[in-house]
Structures are given as structure tokens and as C-alpha cells.
Amino acid sequence: MDRTTFADMRADSRSIGPGRPKPIPSAWAPLISEYLNYLAAGDLPKTTIATRRSHLARLARALRCRPEQVTEQRLLSWFGRQAHWATETRRSYRTTINGFFRWAYRHGHLQVDLSYALPRVKARKPMPRPTPERVWKEAQLAADPRTSVMLQLAAHGLRRAEVAVVSTHDLIPEGPSLVVHGKGGKRRVIPITERLAATIAAGAAGHTPGAPSTGYLFPGNDNGHLSPRWVGTLCSKVLPDVWTMHSLRHRTATRAYAATHDIVAVQHLLGHDSIATTQMYTLVDDDKVRAAMLAAASDSIPGRWQAC
Predict the structure, then answer these.
(1) CB burial string 270-293: b at 16+ within 10 A, e below
(2) How far apart, in whole angstroms, are the C-alpha atoms of residue 146 and residue 8?
(3) Which of 195, 176, 138, 158 lies closest to 47, judged by CA?
(4) Is 122 a residue of the active site?
(5) DSSP character for 143?
(6) What is the pLDDT along the chain (308 residues), one digit of tens a residue?
(7) Would you call 249 a catalytic residue per the annotation?
(8) Distance of alpha carbon 177 from alpha carbon 170, whole angstroms
(9) Residue 236 CB neighbours (<10 A)
(10) Is 35 among the catalytic positions?
């Protein structure tokens, strides 16, 4: 596949808009801007603030009214129509909307507190969905050099937001290792392959001729790098069917646990706060599940577990 140049990449960025936030309606812009400044004052990570902005901009465009004209019914009606959302997406939007309206009411910008308008969204325990090896190989073959690097990083367990901000300055040659900038401003250091280390050391110039050789690996319009959304879009274009960058994280967790049986190590690799979350990503081998079931169903269970 032909290699694109940095000039091509910048033209693509301007025409299609990877990393360029969608506009906020003028009636909402001052209030949302003040709220985002409030979040920044509280030292929230830039990635979190960008997510909140994206959510509120979409809400404002959809409601087509001024902030003070929003009612509980309007909010519920719009929220309920988003039937295509995954549970975690719905939970994230609810967090954003509640926080915004709570702040607006408490600081006197709105006369009505709508932070309790949306019902609680219960978390669901998802089934692990690791990307199959066949799909992984097909994606690598279909990817251009830039997307191929994104896929390699995802195969090391990075989220799309973490992939978007990888920089040559994050590389630790000894090991080699990589400093990963995770959710909530948290950082972790993970080991990486020599091949990936060499790729990161080359910078954006390694995958796109004419691009910088230092700094962000994927330059763009979102604070200097591509937006996480666009990184996910580029990878989804070469991943067939339902497979995504997130399913590549499930693949990483499953393969890492199968090799080590160390759930704590896998937890650190993925940047999870709890082992329970890591377990949701880890698919137990079918043969092991079958062996466990056959052992449980056997009439010859030894020791004190024999039937009385």
C-alpha cells in the first residue's frame, strides 16, 4: 500500500477533520466554555475535558434550544432516543450531563437543577470479546503504515485515547518500555517489543514521510495530536465486522493471562483500577472450561468432596 506524505496527512486533517472538535451552538458556547474552565481548574485531565466538551456539544446541537429552555422532558426524550449507545457510553453521557447542570444551577447560571433528571444507568458485566487472530492478521495487511502503528499499540493493550497521545518522549529505551498516559491523568509504564520501540523512536516520520521525527506519533488538530475518536475510526476501517480497538484490548488481556496466569500483571498492563474489571476482559480458554465442567460432573471426585 502506498505511503502517504505528511502534506497529504495535513490536507486530510483539514478536509475530513480528524481531531477537530465539532462546533458548539452559539447560545451554549459561553456557558460550556465556562464549565470546561471550571473542570480545568479542578485539574481534570485534558482527555476528560475533551470528552465532556464533545458530549455537551452534541447535546446542545440535538436539543436546538437555549440552555435555560431545557426541560426534564426534553432531556429524557433525547437521552431515551439514543438506543444505539452501549451501556458505558450511556453512563458516560449521564455523568457529563449531570455534572454540567449541577454546576450551572449551583453557580446561578440556570434556575432549575436538572442534574437529577436522568435515571441511573446500571453497569453491565460485558462478555470478553478478544479479536480473533485471523482478524488481527487481516487488519495488519489492510492497514497503511500509520494505522499499522496504531494497531501495534492497541495490541500492547493501549486504549484509543492512549494511542492518540503517544510521543517519542514517552519511550524508555532500557527494557524497552513505554510511559502510557491513561484515563484520569494516571500514568503507567509497560514493557514493549523491540520492534515497537524502534517504530516509536522514529516518530511520525517513520510512518509518514515529511512528518516530524520527534513529538506526537500521530500529529493532528486535537492539542497537537489526532483525536481518540479519529484514531478509533482509522483502525475500525481495517478491522472487519464488529471488531474494534477495544476488542484488541480484550485480545491482549486474554493472551497475556493465558501466557502468565498472573491477573495482577494483566491488570497493570491494561491500566485497570480493579482486578474485577480485568477479569471482564479475559476470556478463559474453552478447553479449560470444558475440563473444569467434566471434572465437576465426574463421579470419581477424590477426597472429602465425594458425595455422602
Answers:
(1) bbbeeeeebbbbbbeeeeeeeeee
(2) 12
(3) 158
(4) no
(5) -
(6) 344 455 544 444 443 345 566 789 999 999 999 999 999 999 888 888 988 999 999 999 999 999 999 999 999 999 999 999 888 899 999 999 999 999 999 999 999 999 999 999 887 766 778 889 999 999 999 999 999 999 999 989 899 999 999 999 999 998 899 999 988 788 888 889 999 999 999 999 999 999 999 999 999 988 899 999 899 999 999 998 889 888 898 888 888 888 888 888 888 888 877 777 777 767 655 565 556 556 556 565 555 544 44
(7) yes
(8) 9
(9) 16
(10) no
Please identify which of the residues 52, 160, 207, 246 carries the catalytic annotation.
Answer: 246
**HEC profile of 216-275:** ECCEEEECCECCHHHHHHHHHHHCCCCCCHHHHHHHHHHHHHHHHCCHHHHHHHHCCCCH
Does residue 272 have an active-site annotation? yes
Q: Please tell me which residue in 146, 229, 249, 250 is annotated as part of the active site.
A: 249
From the candidate CATH numbers 1.10.3720.10, 3.40.50.2300, 3.40.50.1260, 1.10.443.10, the one assigned to the domain spanning 133-286: 1.10.443.10
Identify whether 107 is a catalytic site residue: no
* Residue 19 contacts residue 226 (beta carbons within 8 Å): yes
Domain boundaries, the chain: 18-106, 133-286
C-alpha cell, 279: 477479569
E runs forming strands in the chain: 171-172, 177-181, 187-191, 219-222, 225
* Greatest CA separation for the chain: 77
Question: Which residue among 10, 74, 183, 255 is the active-site one?
Answer: 183
Q: Is residue 183 annotated as part of the catalytic site, yes or no?
A: yes
